[in-house]
Amino acid sequence: MGIPDLSASVFAMKYAILVDVGYLYAAAGEVLFGARERREYRVAADELIQALQKQAAERLPGELLRVYWYDAAHDRVPTVDQRVIAALPMVKVRLGNLNKQGQQKGVDAQIRSDLDALARHSAVTDAVLIAGDEDLVSAVEAAQAYGVRIHLWGVEPSYGSNQAERLVWEADFVEVLSADLLRPFVRQANPLPTSPSQPSTPTPAQVFAGRPAAATTTRAARTPSPAGSALSKLGPNRDAVEEVGEHVAQKWILTRGRDNVRDLLPGPILPTVIDTELLIEAEKELGHSLRPYPEARVWLRDGFWNRVYREFDLAERKSAK
């Protein structure tokens, strides 16, 4: 009998990272800022996902299959942030429902279903689970019965424990994500004031007001050249395009929620995925393509930001400067 090729078996090893975003964000907000609600902080999710991938690559043999990102949204309509995350390579967003009380529904069921399918079909040999709910114990036990090793990662608690004791018992390996590891990717938000008696609380308008020179320069840089103006006579009308941009912004505020659109502030740069989506929706409204007209895409963004600035009382502050 020959010596088995161990390098081939290591190469065949694969792992998945399953993240309960509600747990990860809440635990990070608690340990870093003592925050109780997600609106109190902002997370650079794309950078955080890269950090988790790097952490796993340093600790697990084999290769990453993909990251499963379990979050929730009202009526399962993805937010701006969730749409950006869904476009990342090797990341699959799974959405549960977020009810009127801000409670996640259906997230644990999706984690259990995916973990069972990955184990049953031998898609992975190891699974990193970032979660804390005891409801996941049965899924962990089932995956282990198929031979999958469970690596349970938890966020450093501010005190006591933030993971169910039985879940910790059942895991094959347990690791703590330190506050220092998470700190670069989580920052406190600048909430809108709840009443006029709180002038010391910075608002998005105040944040933007501190950047008048950048806003003016950007606007000037967008002025079409004579060649661009001549081309525009053969293409779309500027007022019509800006109006469509405002219409799309209004639609997003209504369907995706004011808080989610506020995440785009202070602008004026849009994430590539969101900018492309804005273009697609505008072309549907206009009934023709804007892609041959670069200046029209600038007008579209101008209209979009005009409506967003008005929504958050930024337009008046900017013009007053």
Automatic annotation (TrEMBL):
<feature type="transmembrane region" description="Helical">
    <location>
        <begin position="12"/>
        <end position="33"/>
    </location>
</feature>
<feature type="domain" description="NYN">
    <location>
        <begin position="15"/>
        <end position="159"/>
    </location>
</feature>
<keyword id="KW-0812">Transmembrane</keyword>
<feature type="compositionally biased region" description="Low complexity">
    <location>
        <begin position="211"/>
        <end position="228"/>
    </location>
</feature>
<dbReference type="InterPro" id="IPR021139">
    <property type="entry name" value="NYN"/>
</dbReference>
<feature type="region of interest" description="Disordered">
    <location>
        <begin position="211"/>
        <end position="238"/>
    </location>
</feature>
<keyword id="KW-0472">Membrane</keyword>
<keyword id="KW-1133">Transmembrane helix</keyword>
<dbReference type="GO" id="GO:0004540">
    <property type="term" value="F:RNA nuclease activity"/>
</dbReference>
<protein>
    <submittedName>
        <fullName>Uncharacterized LabA/DUF88 family protein</fullName>
    </submittedName>
</protein>
<dbReference type="Pfam" id="PF01936">
    <property type="entry name" value="NYN"/>
</dbReference>
